[in-house]
Amino acid sequence: MAKWVRHALTLGAVVVGIAVQVGCANAASSERIASPAAGARYLGAYPGYGTGEENRVTARALRNYRAASGRKPAWVYFSNEWGQEGITFPARAVGIVRRAGSVPFIRLMPRSTLEEGARERRFTLERILAGQFDPQLRAWGAAAGAASKPLLVEFLTEVNGDWFPWNGRYHGGGATAGYGDPHLADGPERARDAYRHVVRTIRAGGGTNITWVFHIDADGSPGAAWNAARNYYPGNAYVDWIGYSAYGAQTNADPWVAPGPIIRAGYRQAASLSRTKPIVLLEFGVTERRGVSKAAWINGAFDAVESPSLRRLIGVSWWNERFQNSDETWTDLRFTSSPSARTAFRARVASSRYLGTVSAR
Questions:
Q1: Sequence-ordered list of residues with C-beta below 8 angstroms from that of 55, at least 6 positions apart, any chain
Q2: Contacts 24+ apart (CB under 8 A), 200-204
Q3: Reported pTM
Q4: Is the preceding omega at residue 222 within 30 degrees of 0, hence cis?
Q5: Which of 25, 35, 41, 136 measures 20 to 30 Å from 356, CA to CA?
Q6: How far apart are CA 176 and CA 148, in angstroms?
Q7: Regarding predicted confidence, which is higher, 223 or 361?
Q8: What confidence score (pLDDT) does residue 302 get?
């Protein structure tokens, strides 16, 4: 279950995945990633930047992550905050990541505030659909294309969660008479069409070296039928990977539950959106808590994601973050939150099956 507060702070994820061909669904990439040998997986990361902002990429953070995990990441995750940066290609961050030998994974975040449940007033789905940001999006695509090498990009992160302002709750909800097809809920339909519009516009600008990721939450909120993830899916022509978030306990008040059922349930939901697309567990993790073993949870989670039954799962991302809650308690999802958690994590990712360098063809 997603908690808004962790999105309002620094992102922290570690990504592990079987390599697949990188590129747009309908356009040739300038460069593609070759698949590793059978049984191997690429290892990437969101290292955490120590600033409280998920777009502050630094070379030092990459070095610190490498020292803590014992591995160099194949790709690095960070946000492109439109409210802070405008709709501009994050060339500086991309450069830092590439100089470190990794592929950039960019989250496009159309928001002006980090406040939970707040309506967006500037970068609304309605304004996106009206084409008001098309010049900036085309320029973003041109800059991405000029970068030539592969990029991973996601838009409308955890779209079925109302902690983010692009959720359908804020754009018509379950009403059907205000937009588009009268048989479809307006909120999800607007989000779906905005996703398509952004992908088309960035591609038209020249961003043909992008793997587009569609990211849902395993639980979602609200629980109404109109908010089902399937109602947001843009279609296979606009999506290369399907990602999802699935968490254990994030606060002391949350029940401590085993990781396997959560991860498998999220996988089934993601798999139901498309019969063919690769699936990525983009966010998972659990807080440090006295009286229970975070190390055991980590091992159970890796056991789940390595299961052959999740045959389309190509990657996983540990959310490596610590943040303060509204009641002044702390949530610590970092794999370094305790010596035993760090030992367990390092042992799992140290396997020779995980590769820290991609192979291009």
A1: 78, 79, 80, 81, 84, 85, 90, 93
A2: 200/238, 201/134, 201/137, 201/138, 201/141, 202/137, 202/138, 202/140, 202/141, 202/144, 202/153, 203/24, 203/26, 203/27, 203/141, 204/138, 204/141
A3: 0.90
A4: yes
A5: 25
A6: 42
A7: 223
A8: 92
CA 352 from chain center: how many Å? Answer: 25
d(CA 165, CA 84): 16
State the sign of the Cα–Cα–Cα–Cα dihedral 99, 100, 103, 106: negative
Beta bridge partners of 152: 105, 211
Secondary structure of residue 182 in the 3-state scheme: coil
- The structure tokens listed for 96 are 């830092």
Beta strand pairing call for 75-81 and 330-332: unpaired
| pLDDT tens column, 210-264 | 989 999 999 999 999 999 999 999 999 999 989 999 999 999 999 999 999 999 9
> Contact, 15 vs 75, CB < 8 A?
yes
Distance CA 112, CA 121 (A): 8
Angle of helix 134-146 versus helix 186-205 axis, rounded to 10:
50
Which SS3 state, helix, strand or coil, does residue 168 take?
Answer: helix
pLDDT band at 1; cut points 50, 70, 90 = very low
Which residues in 201-312 belong to E strands, given as ranges? 210-217, 241-247, 279-285
d(CA 205, CA 199): 10
Assign 76 to helix, strand or coil. Answer: strand
CA distance 15 to 163: 23
Query: Counting Cβ atoms within 10 Å, is residue 102 exposed (0-12), middle (13-18) or buried (19+)?
Result: buried
β-pairing, 330-332 with 322-324?
A: antiparallel
| pLDDT one-digit tens code per residue, 152-181 | 999 999 999 999 999 999 999 999 999 999
State the residue for tokens 């088309």: 200
Dihedral of the alpha carbons of 59, 61, 62, 68, in degrees to the nearest 10: 150
